[in-house]
Amino acid sequence: MEQALIEKKEELGGGLYLVRLKVKGFYYKRGQFFLVQPFKESRPLALFPTEVKGNRIDFILSPKDRPSLELIELLREGESPHFFGGGYGKPLEINGREKTLLVGEGEGLYLLKEVSKGLKDFKILNFEGELPEDLKKFSTLISATSNKIAKEISKICSKEGIKFIHLVRVPILDAEGLCLTCRFKVKNSYRLACVEGPWFEDEGIDWDYLILKEEEWKKEQEREKEEFLKVLPKLLRRKK
């Protein structure tokens, strides 16, 4: 567990928030994630950095479930989360000299800035339904979109002979593969996003299984958020 302190929180608009942590002693490589547990009773929250600079780590997130709400609404600048650890998962290995297109949406768009570090020839695209007309000039496409969108992009990449890498959207609750919540189907076996990913090439991914898993997790997050919003005003009064 690393020592972490909330240095800055800022509302960015569009339902997004910046949370900057000052962390003492951590190890991180491109594409890895961090786990943040706001309070002892909180569920761990997997977060991907939008910028890592020295001992400061920026995250951009939306209040989509209980732990993200706890981090945004209840923890103040100068306070520490109960647990902070990382980086976890396999680093994202990219040939920095290849032409690379990075495609994202929502929060995923922001983390691509950190992912693109070290690349010589790249473009970051905010996905709004279409890929660029000059797609064929890229040798690699990296996706930080929903699984549903990634499925369609993978078909296009396969047709054009473009290497496709996707940040799989599954619930990640630990970094050791013990809870199995992040597993998904690849061909006739299962893979664990927290230890074997979370970035995967499209080699036999069962996209329908992956899409269903993301949809079910979003429903659970929404239920969790609705229940927590009922008690949040009381918790905020206690913080005063």
Give an overview in words.
There is one protein chain. The chain has 240 residues and is an alpha+beta fold. It folds into two domains: 86 residues, Elongation Factor Tu (Ef-tu), domain 3, CATH 2.40.30; 118 residues, 3-Layer(aba) Sandwich (Rossmann fold). Helix content is 29%, strand content 32%. The chain contains five helices and 14 strands. The protein has a five-stranded mixed sheet, sandwiched between helices. A four-stranded antiparallel sheet has the order 1-2-6-5. The chain has a three-stranded antiparallel sheet with strand order 4-3-7, covered by helices on one side. Helix 2 links the parallel strand 8 and strand 9. Helix 1 runs parallel beside helix 5. The radius of gyration is 18 Å and the shape is globular.
Q: Can you describe this structure in just a few lines?
A:
By secondary structure, the protein is of the alpha+beta class. 29% of the residues lie in helices and 32% in strands.
